[in-house]
Amino acid sequence: MALTNSQYDEIMRGYGAKQTFSRRELDRRTAEVTLRVPEYGRLASRIGALASESAKASIHGNTSELDGIRGSIDEIRIRMNTLLTEGGFPSDYLEPVYECPLCKDTGYIGNKKCRCFKQAAIDLLYRQSNIRKILQSENFDAFCLDYFNPDFYDNSTGLSARENAEKLREACKEFVDAFPAGDNILFYGNTGVGKTFLSNCIAKALLDKSFSVLYLSAIELFNILSEYDKEDSADSELSESQITGCDLLIIDDLGTELSNAFTNSKLFYCINDRLLKGKSTVISTNLSPGELMNNYSERIFSRIKNSFKLYKLYGDDIRLIKK
């Protein structure tokens, strides 16, 4: 469903708050630099005066004077950059600080909604605060190979659990680096071997790059889609278009839902529609490929087999190790 006026206003107020924070932070940094490097402040004032002279010269069509003023401004800016670094500040210290550099915290790039606006709408309609808290600790920086047994070998891969986990971690980083390339991933394996953790690593990395990410358990996904099918679907949290249109959809624990004709139909629609749109999907499941083929329709398994990279995780139950 579309955002209501009040929901849209709430999102835009959030952008207004971000812009206010950015301005205040820039003012704070400018005051800090001016206090430590007084000459920088004097040169900044000189540029302001020259800008005024430049405007007057432009109005009167005085081209030679205008060129001279611009040259002086360029020289002063070079000197200011030197003073900034000599004063111990990063060269970009006085650049505006934006949460989203793509739209500069406005929500729009031209007349088009930015990716971060789409994520803001998802977060508003489907509160994912708990997921965001989890992502603070479940990300690539926190991915620890020590939990994967170097002596646990899988016959199908010929790799130890640790070697396999390291290989898949790099594959996930490549997935993020290439995004949005329309690639898809299916993680499968027993409970507690790191499938959800790797999904969270991908989610965190892409959210940091301002892509819209929707994370749903299989049960949540089908509950939302079943609500949307009802006559009072206007009350549902997310529309099918948002589920199929976000940059990345993560479906966790596929196979834990009650499988029936409805869930099969909706899963096929969701996967197929995203494939047609070139949108990426990450799925995690405890089911093996053979069990997926038995539990779901042939056309669903065909889409997954032909359009997803299947990554098997194995080893000891990490949850038990952490306890």
Strand order of the largest sheet: 4-5-6-3-7
Number of helices: 13
Encode the helix/strand succession as letters. Answer: HHHEEHHHEHEHHEHEHHEH
Report low-confidence residues grouped into runs of 5 or more. Answer: 231-236
- Average per-residue pLDDT, rounded, comes to 87
**Main beta-sheet strand count, sense and barrel state:** 5 strands, parallel
Helix content: 55-70%
Question: Oligomer, anyone?
Answer: single chain
How far apart are the first and last residues' alpha carbons, in Å? 43 Å
The structural class is: alpha/beta
**Count of individual beta strands:** 7
Q: What is the CA-based Rg, rounded?
A: 26 Å
Q: Beta-sheet strand percentage?
A: 5-15%
The coarse overall form would be elongated
Characterization of this structure:
With 323 residues, this protein is α/β, with parallel strands linked by helices. The model is unreliable at 231-236 (pLDDT under 50). Helix 6 (161-178) packs parallel to helix 7 (195-208) and helix 11 (289-295) packs antiparallel against helix 12 (298-307). Helix content is 57%, strand content 9%. The longest helix is centred in the N-terminal third of the chain and has 32 residues, at 5-36. A five-stranded parallel β-sheet has the order 4-5-6-3-7, with helices on both faces. It contains 13 helices and seven strands. The protein has helices at 5-36, 38-59, 63-86, 115-125, 129-135, 161-178, 195-208, 218-228, 240-245, 261-277, 289-295, 298-307, 318-322; strands spanning 108-109, 112-113, 185-188, 213-217, 248-254, 280-285, 309-312.
